[in-house]
Amino acid sequence: MAGQASSSTTAGGAEPRPRAGVPVWRVGKPDALLAGAVGAARAALLEAVDAEHIGRHLGAKSEGERLVTHLFECLRPGYRGWQWYVTVARVSRSKIVTVSELGVLPSEDSVLAPEWVPWSERVRPEEREQAILDAAAEGVEAADEADEYDDEAADESADDSSDEGPDEAEEAEAEEAEAEEAIEAADAEAAGITDIDDEID
């Protein structure tokens, strides 16, 4: 069902004036049987809406051949100016009224939310520039934190090295000397030299 108000041209060629009610009504007299089915339309609405939220019957509008929409005043809090609608229909040569659709629609007096505006259009230039500056500042801060972490790691490594005392350094040198002597002895044995005197002889 369309969601826009129709317009009618006044005498004298004046500008069209939107009618109350959002559906686009088609030209033509409403079906008499369907236009008189106010009770059936209200009964269908009562199955979905509390009775205290349904006001007076505002009218019946034709939307086509054997297709009529009934409008009721909406009394629900926060829906000032809105209207309940119930669309009814019938097949050819039948007197059985069938409810096709129901709901609530705004009118000219309704309070509606403002039209949505994309972020790129509603942000002012100065706000955009500030956002860029903030992002750059965050990047600099992250780099500073990384440098500070590297400095702390280097300081900890230097502290670990300075914790070794003189005795530990001497032991390390002695172990290194023993390792060198063991290597030299292994080389001499491989060459068949077991003593300095054997080498002289």
Automatic annotation (TrEMBL):
<feature type="compositionally biased region" description="Acidic residues">
    <location>
        <begin position="141"/>
        <end position="187"/>
    </location>
</feature>
<feature type="region of interest" description="Disordered">
    <location>
        <begin position="1"/>
        <end position="23"/>
    </location>
</feature>
<feature type="compositionally biased region" description="Polar residues">
    <location>
        <begin position="1"/>
        <end position="11"/>
    </location>
</feature>
<dbReference type="InterPro" id="IPR021391">
    <property type="entry name" value="DUF3027"/>
</dbReference>
<dbReference type="Pfam" id="PF11228">
    <property type="entry name" value="DUF3027"/>
</dbReference>
<protein>
    <submittedName>
        <fullName>DUF3027 domain-containing protein</fullName>
    </submittedName>
</protein>
<feature type="region of interest" description="Disordered">
    <location>
        <begin position="135"/>
        <end position="201"/>
    </location>
</feature>
